[in-house]
Amino acid sequence: LAALERQVFDFLGYQWAPILANFLHIIIVILGLFGTIQYRPRYIVVYAIWTAVWVTWNIFIICFYLEVGGLSKDSELLTFNISRHQSWWSENGPGCVRKEASMSGIKGLDNHSYISVIGCALEYRYIEVMHSSFQILIALVGFVYACYVVSVFTEEEDSFDFIGGFDPFPLYHVNEKPTNLLFKQTYLLLYPAGFSGMEIMNK
């Protein structure tokens, strides 16, 4: 649900890189849930690996909006340089008032308007940082849970293998008939009923 919520607001802000990342994340989460329900440890392992990638991505988003390491929140990196859109929260955050001022008096900018945002209770970059931090927290919890589920499934499979649950035929065929029973069956085949002991001795 948190990923879907984030996807909606990234769509509103035309943030194409986060949109793609969120889409992949939703697919992997569905895959992990399917693996848990259907007892498919491999799918859960894929989800666990993806959580590491997802945490790395969200750390990058945090660094991007906090402008760490030469990154700039005003760059077009998240929109693949297709547009100059920013986060939807930059104009629609809590308390933000969006104003448009006509720029018709400036040469070359007729019929354009300047948009200013004032009164925001919380700057939009901190909202994005909180979103990413929450995603990291969920991913860490999901990673721990995925490792636990895989370990439980593995133990169940090992115990089932131990009692021969997955082997249609045993590797070694053990004859469970006692030796005296085998001797008795051989005797009856060689000397069918109707022969006395003396006849057998005479033969």
From TrEMBL:
<keyword id="KW-1133">Transmembrane helix</keyword>
<keyword id="KW-1003">Cell membrane</keyword>
<keyword id="KW-0812">Transmembrane</keyword>
<dbReference type="GO" id="GO:0002028">
    <property type="term" value="P:regulation of sodium ion transport"/>
</dbReference>
<protein>
    <recommendedName>
        <fullName>Sodium/potassium-transporting ATPase subunit beta-1-interacting protein</fullName>
    </recommendedName>
</protein>
<dbReference type="Pfam" id="PF05640">
    <property type="entry name" value="NKAIN"/>
</dbReference>
<comment type="similarity">
    <text>Belongs to the NKAIN family.</text>
</comment>
<feature type="transmembrane region" description="Helical">
    <location>
        <begin position="134"/>
        <end position="153"/>
    </location>
</feature>
<keyword id="KW-0472">Membrane</keyword>
<feature type="transmembrane region" description="Helical">
    <location>
        <begin position="16"/>
        <end position="37"/>
    </location>
</feature>
<dbReference type="InterPro" id="IPR008516">
    <property type="entry name" value="Na/K-Atpase_Interacting"/>
</dbReference>
<dbReference type="GO" id="GO:0005886">
    <property type="term" value="C:plasma membrane"/>
</dbReference>
<feature type="transmembrane region" description="Helical">
    <location>
        <begin position="44"/>
        <end position="68"/>
    </location>
</feature>
